[in-house]
Amino acid sequence: MSSVLKTENVNKFFYDPTEFQVLKNISFEVQKGEFLSMIGKSGSGKSTLLYILSTMDTNYSGALWIDNQKMTGLSIDELAQIRNQKIGFVFQFHYLLPEFSCLKNVMIPALKLNQLEEKEIEARAYDKLKMLGLEDQALKPANKLSGGQQQRVAIARALINDPLIIMGDEPTGNLDSRNTNLVFDILQDLTRTYGQTIIAVTHDDDFAKKSDRIIEMMDGEIIS
Amino acid sequence: MNINSGIAKTYILSNRKLTAVGILGVLLGMSVYIFMNSLLVGFDKSSNKSIFRVNSHITVYKDDEISKELPKEKNKFFLIVNPTVVPNQNTIENPQLVMKTISQHSDVVEVSPQVMSSVFYNNGRTQIPGNAFGVVPEEANRMYHIESFMVEGDFNRLASNPNGIIIGSGIAEKMNVFLNDNINITSSKGVNRTFKVMGIFKTNNSVVDKSKSYVNIAASQQMLKEGNAYITEIHVNVKDQEKAEDIAAQLSKITGYKAEGWKSANETFMAANKMRKIIITFVSLTILLIAGFGIYNILNMTVSQKINDIAILKAMGFKGKDVVRIFVTQAVSIGVIGVMGGVLMSTIMITLLKKVYLGGDIGYFPIDYEPTKYAQGIFIGLFITFFAGYIPAKKAAKVDPVEIFRK
To answer: Of A105, B31, B195, B285, which is the most exposed, with the fewest CB atoms less than 10 Å away?
Structure first.
């Protein structure tokens, strides 16, 4: 097993309204193919940590490696390029672009990466949607789908560039139990069948229990 | 198509009403700008045309001189108590040499001598005051295009007829004379002479039409009891009328006589032109700017509406400059369509107005398609729309996705 993500002594402070240390000396490693859940009470720093891992938040001390490449100190544009290629995101809210069809929404990150012909990208996007059972919704506008379907489209979009890691911020937070199970099964299937690495923040204990590894956080520290 | 422009296109098409309002704003601003500025050029051209019917670009003449003190001497101090105009003939000495000197200047295209005399046109017991201009007919016609505003007769007949006269339409009406009638004139030197009307002109400037007449230069010299070296004014036309003032200053130095450009001779006129120019430029630019504000507003609104889209795009690897491109593309597309519509609209407006007959001095409405004004309008229009889009786009590029996701 190889390491896909590693942190070393990550510290982060909030200064508004008063100085407050959200993360204290966070050091851990994530192996390829792991399904990792981060749990903890609200305010424990788990989401903050996830956004640092995602490279979108660069305001921290310590060091972050993704795919053995040091992220800390890279420019915002370089990080954007790396996110495009190596990280897929699934949020609590789907964040689909409402004016576009589902298929187009899935295609956007690949069009941005611009390594394949548009026809190939379209075929791949269609495959991903099919994998998630949405092939008959492909040409509908994204805002015409149900919440569960939208979240699955968002997962398909996260998968389009075959990312190294999928990061989820409460990926099932907005869904009913049936859809939660569905989404969880999809994510689990991705790790089992395709060896996909997943890091998800959740406060759903059932969800966490079913994952491979749990990191529990409290007051900015990893406690287990 | 690039994904950035693809997204921009979708935003434009999915928000049709806003897009249409933006386009309409630019279209109106643009068409008013081009239209008003073309109108301005038209007005200038038409007023210049009426000026050049009676004025040459430069007039060289002997100016009255005030008595001056003698050259300064050491230890002596002169004081002239009551300076007056030095009594002098207001004639140009050795006019042939002066004219030859002037015509050697590289910018000069036409030189023509004139003898102006104040006269009375006699009609029974009444006398109409006026001015008879002694000219060399061919030269004068080339300079003022008198042929183009003749209403009766032929200007060229003046050359072959030493007793001919061309009179203004106002004089003809008051004196009740027609083509080939005789007319009696008394000069300021008391010389009485009868001329034959060879033609009647109408400049539509009633003061000129009621007082001015053209005669042969020799006839005019005889009326003033002068010889053929008597020339009161030398009229000069240059290649570029806008440079007339500079060339006048040079001619003044070369010849030693006063040379006056047409702009200084018509200062009130030029001031009015200038005022009109300032007002029209100001108003038309303001209207274009307001169209820019329209686009700015629309883009600002779009950015606020699409803040979630911007956040996810940035999370998925779109860079700041990609986001700028998306929104600037949107603004510039609105701008380009609006500008094209504006060009079309102003062309239609100009075409319609060109056909309106006003009569009087002006005739048809003095407006034409002015390529430079079109180019200027297109450039300024695109420039404004670019910046109207760039400012909100820059704001969109600065959106911090983490802040949006954590809400």
So the answer is: B285
